[in-house]
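Exam prep: given the inputs below (a chain plus zinc ion), describe the expected output before reading on.
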Amino acid sequence: MNIEEALQKANLDIRLRGEDAPHQWFKYAEIEANVLCDQRDLKLNFTFNCDKRIQAYAVYESKLVVVTAGLFDFLCRLADRIVSKGLLPALGRAVAPSWTLSSVRSDQTPRKLIQDAPFVDGVSEWKDDPERHALFFYLLLTLFRFVVFHEMGHFYHGHDKRSPESSASMDVDSAQPRLLPKNEALDAQARELVADKFAMDMLTICTEAEVERMKRTPFMAPLEKTLLNSKERRMQFLLQAAYIYFAATDRLPDSVPEEGIRMSHPPAAFRLVTLAAMVTENLDGEKTHSALAATIVGDALIAVALDRKPDPEWLARMQVPTLVEHYKKLHDRFSFWTKNSPRLTRGR
Ligand SMILES: [Zn+2]
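Solution:
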């Protein structure tokens, strides 16, 4: 398949090859994404494009997963900020992190703060510290994999087949979701939760296998010892990464009830709660609280990394009756958008 043509046909910005990108991390990520896209017999293609916005796409006709340069650059800045601030100090020779709460910074969105701090490869203070380097890479890789697996989830569950009669050409995942008519929004949001579940499942399988395979290598050994040394810790790490991702792209404060039920994507708090519930399901009873604890750690990481106020209310904001009701309805639509749904079998 010609990727340039497929992008043009879908009206997307031109291709960015890893080797032509501003820094080496694009190249590594591109190799990784190609491996991921080949899984589950999906045989998808992957590419970055030059778009500066924070977006990812599932282009159905050409079986193409697209991540914008803007989104990947954003993930690099975010991971760099966390590692440079000395967070997760058990790894390497980090100076103890300092938190200077700033009301000016607290009034700005996390996304704006991250976008104002460019990432220049090779100048961060962790560059000569192998363990901090490994932390940066693994955090970046985890955030990036979540995005790619999410897009793959749209393909895996046949989200292009909207009904026996109609197909969609593309799904867009953007930091700023559109508003839709209420009934359309419910189905659009259910599809996102299904794609998130696929992403978390795949990320879990991938992380478990990778840690087992690589735990004696110089790269993985320190990560395994400090961050990833039990199934529970690995789950916490993945959930923290998800929290950081949603908080950094500003999706957490977006649970305004009237808008929350009309957005193309569910309020991020819904997405996190769904992921936390899944993670909990995979742990035994006593460890269930650890899922929620992980999001508290994620919140602290973002607050310190950006010198902002923490956001302990993110979960409480969901408790208004309109949103509770909407969340229930969303879950009722969940199975309709999964692979074995009657929507697909009837259509064949
Ligand atoms: Zn999506």
